[in-house]
Design a protein that fits this description.
60 residues; mainly alpha; elongated
Length: 60
């Protein structure tokens, strides 16, 4: 049996992996610069996870 405890996730979000993947793929494609601005239209956990990852990497 496998158990995934989201409460231990540092972002508290089940969308953390999706957000991290989106940022990593965009970086690899060369589409992000230090002037890049992230905009995310949802009000769910993806926005929270994306903002944490972006801030950690120095993006706005």
């Amino acid at each position: 049996m496998y158990l995934k405890c989201e409460g231990f996730n540092f972002a508290g979000s089940i969308r953390l992996e999706a957000a991290a993947s989106a940022v990593t793929q965009t970086e690899k494609a060369g589409l992000l610069t230090e002037d890049s601005l992230f905009a995310e239209s949802s009000s769910d956990n993806l926005g929270v996870a994306l903002s944490i990852i972006a801030a950690n990497k120095g993006y706005r």
